[in-house]
Amino acid sequence: MIKVLVVDDSIFMRRVISDAINKSGEMVVVGTASNGDDVLNQVRILQPDVITLDIEMPRKNGLIALQEVMSEVPTPVVMCSTLTAEGTQATMMALEIGAVDFIAKPTLITAETMELTFKELLPKIRIAAQARMAKRTASSAGPKLKSVASNKVLLIASSTGGPKALMTLFETLPKEMRVPCVIVQHMPVGFTKSLAQRLNGAGSFITREAEDGDQLEPGVALLAQGGKHLEFSGADKLRFNDAPDRLGVKPCADYLFESGAKFLGDKALGVILTGMGKDGTAGALAIKKAGGTILGESAETCTVYGMPRSAKEAGAVDGEFPAHELHMAIMAALQGGKRAAA
Predict the structure, then answer these.
(1) Does 60 share its domain with 93?
(2) Among 279, 318, 324, 327, which one carries the catalytic annotation?
(3) 186 labelled catalytic
(4) Are 33 and 59 in contact (CB under 8 A)?
(5) Is 311 found in the same domain as 168?
(6) Within this chain, do residues 94 and 177 fall inside the same structural domain, yes or no?
(7) Is 159 one of the annotated active-site residues of the chain?
(8) Which of the chain's ends, N or C, has fewer CB atoms near its CB within 10 Å?
(9) Distance CA 314, CA 294 (A)
């Protein structure tokens, strides 16, 4: 039975979230809190497996409470965010701090919107309960690497825990990278713009949301929009694909990787970061067959070691590395191919 601590400043939301969790048959609410002041003590006493945490709360907001939890008693957290400009930026900060995932709270409360919310929340609690958590520590930046020119294209797939892994990667890669980059992060409509803005601030790439018909540019990272598959339509051009969900996600990285294999061949350098499921595996196999290179995030730093493990077990991965060392493998692959990366 998964033990859940529900934190929300709304009495109504605490009640309905708790009811939905308790009715699931596989989860139980062990406690509730109405503000950030109570969270750390509740976690220490109740030792929940997962926390659902509101961002906007009186006295101490969810971000401060999250920082305290991650520093003192790391516990999987699913954030509850409002779909506003401020809410999406705060959600990206929460994911960087260490939250496993988030849901967007409905702006209009009806029986239908709450049912959809819980349909999304309960699986995310289930996944969060499997997440690997560790205290936040200052990581070594490692050797200073210089940017290099290369004819390769960097393709990245990530899901649960991905925003934090992406930020780690972008902060450790050389400044002003000189290769094109395309990213698929599983994320709903309305949140990818904020993620792109935060990744842009890391300085390794000029990062923005992808648009239909975008051309690849060295030093520019294009992030797939939530709710739209992204794929190559030529060696240096992208397009949206409005096919249904694939593997339960949209965008799906397999479309990007498979089309990358077709148009880029051995110039495709794929990276599969943390995430639940097997998205990226079929595409990684296609890239490998076309002569390209695939790198994976190792279990050591994955929040959920699902996507990289699936690709590895399929025989598609040339090497695995913790998130804070992936930059070195990527730079080696850009310069010297598979052997250098591994």
Answers:
(1) yes
(2) 279
(3) yes
(4) no
(5) yes
(6) no
(7) yes
(8) N
(9) 12
